[in-house]
Structure formats: structure tokens, C-alpha cells
């Protein structure tokens, strides 16, 4: 039975990786300027490289694919941790307002540093995740303040407060964006819907340290996430510092979400869907579920970004809209299932 379970786990991992590579291959070769596999191989190996191929691959398509994968990874892992901490299957960085908090902070940053974002200078690129983290952290503090009941987080209050907070911060972001000049407003509006069309290598450098540091922190606490699904008194009797572990996991999740939001805008539902899909595939043990959540998140965003840029070509949809088209029906399904 153990071997069968391990075999299923490896099959799921390999299947997710294969799906990511297929989507990346399609995204790399298809578009307004089609490129053959041979051209890609020669360009990557620097065999008689062509300037137009270098421009399309290294400046446009490859950074976009990498950012889509990293954003999906971060949101998937953060979603698994947040659902584990709150013990609420409907919890999600977007539903709880953490996306909106990080997004509002970045929009405020855009407003006060108008004109510096479009040039993607190093200062603005590296500062945006920090502003996003501050916004996400403020939102989390607000959640704790209003969802705390009888010495613990009330899962139903967390969800209700999160939805209200997300709505309010979304309105604040829209109000601030309306105060921007027309060019910055257009960019902020597209960004708020969730888009990675403006991907570049600086954004990757800005978000990568957050993922490299915080994902291992969450993965190492997979066993703690398992224990947090028990009654709180039972967990305390096992010697677990419940509130300390919850705070570490929540702060790590906020950091991941903030780094993702700072480069991709408000992409929702990835952190909601990935844990549910992972549980169905590999079970409830977080040591297996968390890595699978990351891979499923990567696949969701990479595939959705490919759909977003090709279905209505030459026009593009923001990737956040494509994921929402998938995620909203899934969220409604989960709500009905929770009521049953």
C-alpha cells in the first residue's frame, strides 16, 4: 500500500511537470511570431543566433513563462499553508483579502512613484514586493483583529472578514488608480486584473529571493500543518507552540503572495483550487500536498497565460480573467459542497 501511494505521488508529480513543460513549449513556439523547435534550440545553444529570435525568446516569451511558473508556485504553496492554518477549505489569499491588501499597497506605490514603474528600474522593481508585503501584513493584522474569538481564529469570521476586506481594498485601489495620469491608470487597471504581459528578468530577480527563502520554511512545517488540523487542545498537548507556528506560516504565506502580486497583479483562485486538487490526487498529508500544490499552481498559471494570449490573438486577455473564468464556478461548487 505504501509503495502504491508513493507510486501515485510520483505519477502526479511527473504528470504536473509534464503539463508545465507542454504549456511552456506551446507558449514559447506560438504567438504573433511563430518559432520552430529548431530555432529555439539553436537560439538557446547560441548556434548561429538570429536577433529577432533573441528578442522574442529572451525579452518577451521566456521571462513571461518563468514569471507565470513562479507566480503559480508561490500562490499554490501559499494557498496550501493558508487553508491549513485557518482549517478552512474556502480560504484563499484572494478571498481573505491578502491579495487585495498587497495590491492596494503596490497601487499606492505606483501613485507616489508615478512614471518610475513603466521603466522597471531596479528601485521600483525591488521595492514593490516590500510594499506588497507591508500591505498583506496589514491585512492579516486586520483579519486577526476582527476574526479572533475566544482565544483563537474563527474560520467563519476569517472568511467573512476577508471577503469584506478584499472588497474595501479593491475599491481603494480603484479610487487611487483614478487619481493617476492616463498612462499609469491604464497600466494599473490591467495590472489589478492580473497580468504578466510586462514580464522581464528584473521582476524575476525581485521575486525569486522571496520564493527561495519562504517556500522551504513552509515545506519544513508540513508536519505542523498536519497537526494544526486537529483540535487546538490536542495540538498544544503535543508540545506545539500553536500561535507561534501559525504566525510563521501566515507571515511566510503573506510574503509569497506579496511577491507574486507585485509582479503579476491580482491573480485570484490559484491558492483556492490548487490545494483542493492536490488533496484529491495525493491525500491530506501536507508533506506531499504542498509540493503538488506548487506544481498545480504553476500549471494553472502557465496554461491560463497561454490561453490568455492566444485565444483572442492579436488581442490579449489578462491571465487573471482566464483563471477567474475557471475559478468562480469552482468556488461556487465548493460553497455548495460546504453547505451539504
Topology overview:
Elements (H helix, E strand, L loop, with lengths): L1 H28 L7 H8 L6 H36 L11 H15 L9 H26 E2 L2 E2 L1 H24 L3 H11 L8 H20 L1 H6 L4 H6 L4 H23 L5 H13 L3 H25 L8 H21 L1
Antiparallel strand pairs: 1-2
Question: The CATH topology is what?
Answer: ABC transporter involved in vitamin B12 uptake, BtuC
Count the domains. Answer: 1
Structural class: mainly alpha
Helix-strand topology string = HHHHHEEHHHHHHHHH
Percentage of β-strand residues:
under 5%
**Residue ranges: pLDDT <50 for 5 or more in a row?**
none
Mean pLDDT: 84
CATH level-4 homologous superfamily: ABC transporter involved in vitamin B12 uptake, BtuC
Tell me roughly what share of residues is in helical segments: over 70%
Largest sheet: 2 strands, antiparallel
CA radius of gyration is 20 Å
- How are the strands of the largest sheet arranged? 1-2
CATH uppermost class? Mainly Alpha
- Count, helices: 14
What distance lies between the first and last C-alpha atoms, to the nearest angstrom? 31 Å
Shape: globular
Record field, number of beta strands: 2
Reported CATH architecture: Orthogonal Bundle
Membrane topology: Multi-pass membrane protein
Pfam family, one: FecCD
Organism: Paenibacillus tianmuensis
Subcellular location: Cell membrane
What key phrases describe this protein's structure?
about 350 residues, ABC transporter involved in vitamin B12 uptake, BtuC, two-stranded antiparallel ribbon, about 0% strand
Amino acid at each position: 500500500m505504501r509503495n502504491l501511494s508513493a507510486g501515485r505521488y510520483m505519477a502526479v508529480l511527473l504528470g504536473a511537470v509534464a503539463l508545465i513543460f507542454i504549456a511552456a513549449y506551446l507558449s514559447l513556439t506560438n504567438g504573433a511570431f511563430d518559432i520552430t523547435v529548431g530555432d529555439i534550440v539553436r537560439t538557446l545553444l547560441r548556434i548561429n543566433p538570429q536577433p529577432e529570435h533573441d528578442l522574442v525568446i529572451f525579452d518577451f516569451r521566456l521571462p513571461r513563462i518563468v514569471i507565470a511558473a513562479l507566480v503559480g508556485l508561490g500562490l499554490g504553496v501559499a494557498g496550501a499553508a493558508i487553508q491549513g492554518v485557518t482549517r478552512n477549505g474556502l480560504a484563499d489569499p484572494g478571498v481573505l483579502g491578502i491579495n487585495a491588501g498587497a495590491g492596494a499597497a503596490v497601487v499606492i506605490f505606483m501613485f507616489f512613484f508615478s512614471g518610475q514603474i513603466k521603466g522597471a528600474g531596479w528601485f521600483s522593481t525591488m521595492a514593490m514586493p516590500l510594499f506588497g508585503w507591508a500591505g498583506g501584513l496589514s491585512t492579516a493584522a486586520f483579519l486577526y483583529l476582527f476574526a479572533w474569538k475566544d482565544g483563537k481564529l474563527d474560520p467563519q469570521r476569517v472568511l467573512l472578514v476577508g471577503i469584506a476586506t478584499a472588497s474595501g481594498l479593491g475599491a481603494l485601489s480603484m479610487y487611487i488608480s483614478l487619481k493617476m495620469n492616463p498612462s499609469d491608470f491604464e497600466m494599473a487597471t490591467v495590472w489589478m486584473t492580473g497580468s504578466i504581459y510586462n514580464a522581464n528578468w528584473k521582476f524575476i530577480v525581485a521575486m525569486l529571493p522571496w520564493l527561495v527563502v519562504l517556500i522551504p520554511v513552509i515545506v519544513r512545517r508540513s508536519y505542523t500543518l498536519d497537526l494544526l488540523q486537529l483540535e487546538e487542545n490536542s495540538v498544544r498537548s503535543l508540545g506545539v507552540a500553536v500561535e507561534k507556528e501559525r504566525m510563521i506560516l501566515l507571515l511566510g504565506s503573506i510574503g509569497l503572495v506579496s511577491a507574486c502580486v507585485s509582479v503579476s497583479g491580482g491573480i485570484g483562485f490559484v491558492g483556492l483550487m490548487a490545494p483542493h486538487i492536490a488533496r484529491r490526487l495525493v491525500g491530506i498529508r501536507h508533506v506531499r500536498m504542498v509540493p503538488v500544490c506548487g506544481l498545480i499552481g504553476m500549471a494553472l498559471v502557465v496554461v491560463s497565460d497561454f490561453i490568455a494570449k492566444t485565444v483572442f490573438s492579436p488581442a490579449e486577455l489578462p491571465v487573471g480573467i482566464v483563471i477567474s473564468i475557471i475559478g468562480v464556478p469552482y468556488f461556487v461548487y465548493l460553497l455548495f459542497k460546504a453547505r451539504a
